[in-house]
User: Fold these one by one.
Assistant:
Number 1:
Amino acid sequence: MEVVNEQDKLLWLATAEQERKKADDEKKIAEKIFYESDQFKQLTVLSWITFSLLGLVIAVTGFVIVRKWPIPIVTDLIWIAIISGVLGSSCSALLSALERKANGWEDKKGNKYPNDEPRDKFSQRMATFFLFRPFFGILAGLIIYFGMQAKLLGDTGISDPAKVIFWSLLSGLFIKTLMEKLKDVFENLVGKK
């Protein structure tokens, strides 16, 4: 009886290994087809457009901040806060986009290449999010500016441009977290459970 069970076990293991090899071969074929497809070429171009545009926003906003506001309108602290928030948010978006590209690609059907893990991959749907994320930096800058003006952030000194830049950059970098925390604060204020 043990011999039959041992033979069955070996047969089962051999069959399982053949099925695993067949699945791996099919996955390699699908991956090869994807990398030769127009969709892969479009994703590659889209990723470089995303990186370039975010890099341009970072360069321009960084230049404006570092050059001590050469544009007359930027002498107003609200604009300094907004530009700093956009800079922080753009840096965060570029970092996320680069991390996703380093992890691989996701096609329109949700198939992930080269592997399913790590889960977050660069995709066409996410590119749009990355390109619009700097606009959330405007919100971050405004939150910091008016929070400082209302002294909700402690006695931080709204008149000090360096503090406005620091807090606006930080809020832009972590705008998603900031929005989640503000949502929690708002729900606590209105008593929503």
Number 2:
Amino acid sequence: MTAKYFCALATEQAGSENRASLLAGISLIQDAIEIFLIGCVDHVGASVKSGASLMQLFDSVDEGLGGGRLPFRTRLDHLNRVRVNVKHHGTAPESVEVRKFIAHGREFLEAAAEIVFQKEWHSISLLDEISNRDVAQHLVDATQRFSEGNYLECLIACRKAFYEIFEAKCDVSIFLTEDDKPSLLSPRFLCEAPHYARNKSYIDRSVNTPFDYIVLDFQSLDPKLLKDGLDPQVFWNIWRLTPKVFLTSDKIWLVEETSEIHLNTNLKADAEYVLEATSDIALKLALRSKGERLRTLNRSYWHLPFKSAGVPIYSKASRESKINGTVPDHLEFVMSDSRTTGLENDGNYWRVFHIEEDLILIGYTHEDDIDLSRLEIM
């Protein structure tokens, strides 16, 4: 798993146009191979000296297997020398060659995993890195189904993981009924389906099966995938190769049965591709999430006390803008995260927000309406 983690990092660097990232990828793939070979040494019971080089590890494992079984020795030797030049001399081939070396390293790991462990590389799990436990569990199930030779069930489990990552956010079934308690944190507000589909009229007109409740926003999808470092082509490949699924409000999974998938004679190859691609997407998103640094994690807010009730909340930092609402009698203060000069240069405005079951106040209030003597930071 450690070797696969390093390999995933190296593969990610190989997709960069930054030369420094590519050179880091060389070191990462070499480290992945070295860690992998250390595991192989233990598995085959080979003897090796402490501090053995990469090629010494390779030869020890190959000898333990009976000799002549591990592939790509010349490639690995070349990769090792390139890595030495990168690390100790700061020199390396051109970017296209660097990508080839990283690809060759991955090819070795894939081939050697089957030779040494009788285990396909993609089935080695990195799922502990995925924080979304539902996604991780679906991928565990998919891996198990693949190892059992149940390739259709593997595809279904992968689609469930895919659904949890992407499609659950585009479920318009929540618009079948009116929202009695509107909130900025409600599923209706957070829904990522296109605006034209977020209403009962669309559902009555266009939803013919439960699977039609999932409405992707095609216009914004590809840019969002690219922003997250994902390949849109891989996304659509998974979407095409797996059967549609839908999770009902009762937490029951529905699966669409189609002749195209049931009569597919290429199920094993499709399942192998989809399992690795879906796991790779989930891992990339998990690593990206861990790498984010958000100021809001330990954020404080001002509590703004008003001088009186009925204070207007403007849509902009301007008394000439639309009034989004007024402060009711029972509300003593609201939260604010910033202060700004007004658009008309008529003093300061505070950006405020307050959400209750039946009250939403978001906008700007003029400083003249705030009792600054009782201002607090919470």
Number 3:
Amino acid sequence: MANVLTVVWFVIGWIISQVGAMVLFALLFPNRVALAQHQLTTRPRASVGIGFLFWAASAFLTVLLLQAGKAAPLQLLGWLCSGPMLISSLLGGAAVARLAAERIRQEAPEASSFACLVGGALCLALAGLVPVLGWFGVLPLFGWASVGAGLTALWPRRRPRVTVQPAAPPEPAPAASGYADPSAALPS
């Protein structure tokens, strides 16, 4: 019974960490996430292809350097080689979560933007847990698309101008006071 509970708590922790990381990246780097989202919507196949190639090269180089035996500097370099792939996957994952949040917003217009973002990230994290289809279809496909879109958002060449405009704060209601405006009584 203890083994089952360990797996359940591991899965719950994995979901919470995935949702939290995607929401955090979406909130901290809105312009980069918007670039990745633009890449996902305009060139989804290119995102998957670039993501697969970068993921495969990064995984190969990381595993090669981590198996360097007792050479600690090479192992440290192996861990550092996985950094760009992980960062680009988080940026791209946040972009996929924002795409899902836009779809959720269409279905529930009264929901807040933050609730839609958390819902989109939760949908993405849970979709990867579906047996067989999620493990071998959703997770690799969205993973490679996320890595490719995140990498192109970090890439320094030819970026479209995509910016995120913050929501305008609501206008404060005029304060009711017992004093009249003195300029209104003056003749023109």
